[in-house]
Structures are given as C-alpha cells and as structure tokens.
Design goal:
Elements: E1 3-6, H1 13-23, E2 31-34, H2 45-54, E3 59-61, H3 65-74, H4 88-91, H5 96-104, E4 110-112, E5 117-119, H6 130-145, H7 149-155, H8 170-183, E6 186-187, E7 209-210, E8 223-226, E9 235-237, E10 240-242, E11 252-257, E12 265-268
Parallel strand pairs: 1-2, 2-3, 5-8, 8-10
Antiparallel strand pairs: 1-11, 4-5, 6-7, 9-10, 11-12
Helix pairs in contact: 6-8
Length: about 280
C-alpha cells in the first residue's frame, strides 16, 4: 500500500489521469491525498470531481479556495466571474447536487497520526500549532456542514482580520480560519497574513516571509503537506512539502509518496504555458 499526495489539479483531468498511470495507482491498495483546488481554470473540473468522488475511501481531499468559491457560487453567495466559466459544466451537470454536497462535506484539514503528516491547502499561521489548527479547521467544517452555511459563504470574502487572536469570534473568526487554511502564502514578522502577495519569494517585498519560515512558528517540527502557491513550485524543506507545480499554468502535476522515501513523480501540463497564481 502506498500513500501519495497530489498537488493542485484545478480541472486538469487529462494530467491527473496520466499521473495515476505513472504511479501505477491501484485504488484497492493505494491511497491518494489531494491538497485541494480540484476545480477551476482547467478544462475538466466536472470530470475531476467525478473521478475523485468515485475513488471513495481511496482518496482524501482538503478544501481549497477555488473549491470554496465554487460552493459559494452554487449556493448563491458569489457571482460567476469571467475567470470562473470553467465551472459552468459543474453547475449545469445532472449530478451537480451530489457532487457539490460531497465537496462541501470534505475537510479543511487532514491529519494522519500514523504517518505523522498534516495536510492543508495553503498554510498555517505562525500562532497555530497542529492541535489548534485541527480545532480551527473543525470549526470551519462545522460551519460548512451546518444549516447556516450560506452565511459562511457570504461572509468569507475579504482579507481581514489578518492577525490571529483567540478572542476572534463570529464571521471574523471564520474568515481568518478560511483565509489561513486556503489562501495563505506569506506573513510579516509579526505573523500577519499578507494575502495580497502571490508571486515567487524572490519578488516579494522585504517584509513578506513564507509562512513556513516565520521565526517562532508554533507548527515548526510538524510535517505538513500543502499546495496553493504555484509560484513557489515544488518545495521540500522547513518541514513542509509544497506540491503546487502550476499544472493549470503550463507547469506540471506532481505527486509525492508520503509513507516511504521516494522522488516526486510528475507529468507535464497540457495547458497553455503562462504564469499566474490566483
């Protein structure tokens, strides 16, 4: 049995299918971890959702910002933007309700004590250790699964508050948790989330520090798997395995085995080569 983590798919189903062939993936034996952002930008978001859902217990995925945005559109809390037109096949599919309900039930964080690995889409603010991160993720998951989830989607957009405080409550608390788990790339030295910065580390302002390199980070020492930051690319250091290698932007789709030492396995993108990091 092998356990593989896979970077942001973002609707690139052709590449995902090719990657599973390259891994010789066997759903009766192996397990897949997806770092989130299954959908949007790429041409086959509907097929990706169907494929991952069909895998059942052989796969686990955490929610990314694009997954949440799809749910917000579907639940009437956000508008479809020109850049979101690749989501239309999902929204118009005959099985849309089953797929969206399944997606909304997925976790915001996955922790495997046997492997000693925690997976999130984006990152953890420096004030959180793993137990606190798990509790905060559980709060978000409860809100997603509760009868007032529509309010969560309506309130989740925005960059503030940008600094964790245990006393945060209501929409501000859930917005911070959502941003940390699904949008975080860099912080300042005080641990504030700098959510507007999206480029590679070398082009960041001097005040911006990758979230996993902030001095005193409370999750230091944990093994964390994430995606989201395509401009960072593959990263294996600081206790963090970053797997977003920009497939949807013409890069590659990457998998890394988690239960045994191994080199990453990648397949080339079939998308037009460009750079962006939404």
């Amino acid at each position: 049995m092998a356990t593989y983590a896979i970077g942001d798919v973002q609707g690139c189903c052709d590449e995902l299918e090719a990657l599973l062939v390259a891994l010789a993936f066997d759903p009766s034996r192996d397990r897949l971890w997806f770092v989130g952002d299954l959908v949007n930008r790429g041409p086959r978001s509907l097929d990706v959702l169907r494929l991952v859902r069909r895998l059942g217990d052989a796969a686990v995925t955490v929610l990314g910002n694009h997954d949440l945005h799809l749910l917000a559109i579907a639940r009437g809390a956000a508008h479809l933007r020109p850049a979101d037109l690749t989501l239309l096949p999902v929204l118009e599919a005959p099985d849309r309700d089953a797929l969206l309900d399944w997606l909304q039930a997925q976790p915001a964080l996955h922790h495997d004590p046997a492997l000693g690995v925690t997976m999130v889409h984006a990152g953890l603010p420096p004030q959180w250790d793993i137990p606190l991160a798990r509790r905060c993720a559980a709060e978000l998951e409860a809100a997603l699964r509760g009868e007032h989830s529509g309010k969560l989607f309506a309130d989740m957009y925005g960059n503030h508050p940008d600094l964790w405080d245990d006393e945060l409550d209501g929409p501000d608390r859930l917005r911070f948790i959502t941003n940390a788990l699904t949008r975080l790339r860099v912080c300042d030295k005080a641990g504030r989330l700098l959510l507007k910065h999206k480029g590679p580390p070398a082009k960041m302002p001097a005040s911006a520090i990758p979230w996993f390199q902030v001095p005193g980070r409370r999750s230091a020492g944990a093994r964390i798997v994430c995606g989201h930051w395509s401009a960072l690319g593959y990263h294996d250091g600081d206790g963090v395995l970053g797997l977003d290698t920009g497939c949807v932007w013409g890069g590659r789709l990457t998998a890394q085995r988690l239960d045994a030492p191994a080199r990453p396995v990648t397949v080339p993108s079939r998308q037009p080569a460009m750079f962006s990091d939404p």
